[in-house]
Design brief:
The protein is α+β, with helices and mostly antiparallel strands. It has seven helices and five strands; from the N terminus they run H-H-H-H-E-E-H-E-E-H-E-H. Helix 1 crosses helix 2, helix 2 packs across helix 4 and helix 3 crosses helix 4. The longest helix has 17 residues.
Length: 185
């Protein structure tokens, strides 16, 4: 298996654009998972992941491109899409289909295990219809219910994503009007 090297944070973050300590710790965890899997977390992939981790909302590919172009004038759409494909393939990010946006996989980065082998990663996303904030859940009860229902059909679940729309606690508390909703699919 090829060995992967970890880029240093300074290799991709210009002075003045330092990331939070939490983001750096999560990026180090992502680096470690890549090394364990024998793949390479390049400086660009790390930067895309860092942008997602620092954002309070899901980011579209072109949002990421715009932020990258502010740091690297030569950044182009294929660059971002290749980085996102890598992060998705290795379970480090999720695509929120409803929003055509991307979020980091908080579950895999915040926990001490990874998802190699037969681990079924069943994620639920709570999407606020008003502010578009997304919260990642991984509820064991829902995972078990999906596995049980699937087994009844002779199906073995390896991955599941559920997108649930509603109002977040902040929007509910502020009385924000629900009519300001997400764009249609």
């Amino acid at each position: 298996m090829p060995t992967a090297t970890r880029p240093t944070p300074e290799a991709f973050v210009p002075e003045g654009d330092r990331l939070s300590a939490r983001t750096e710790a999560l990026l180090d965890r992502a680096d470690s998972l890549c090394v364990k899997r024998g793949v390479r977390m390049t400086a660009l992939r790390r930067q895309v992941m860092g942008l997602m981790l620092e954002s309070s909302h899901p980011l579209r590919a072109y949002d990421l491109l715009e932020q990258l172009q502010a740091r690297h004038a030569g950044a182009a759409p294929p660059t971002v899409y290749r980085a996102l494909d890598f992060l998705l393939e290795h379970g480090l990010a999720h695509k929120i289909e409803r929003l055509s946006s991307f979020v980091p996989c908080v579950h895999v980065l915040d926990h001490s295990h990874d998802h190699d082998g037969d681990c079924a990663h069943a994620t639920q996303f709570l999407i606020c219809r008003t502010c578009a904030r997304v919260t990642e859940l991984e509820d064991g009860g829902i995972v078990r219910a999906i596995a049980l229902a699937s087994r009844g059909s002779g199906f073995h679940v390896q991955h599941s994503t559920i997108e649930i729309e509603g109002l977040c606690a902040e929007c509910l508390a502020s009385g924000t009007n629900e009519s300001a909703s997400l764009p249609p699919q």
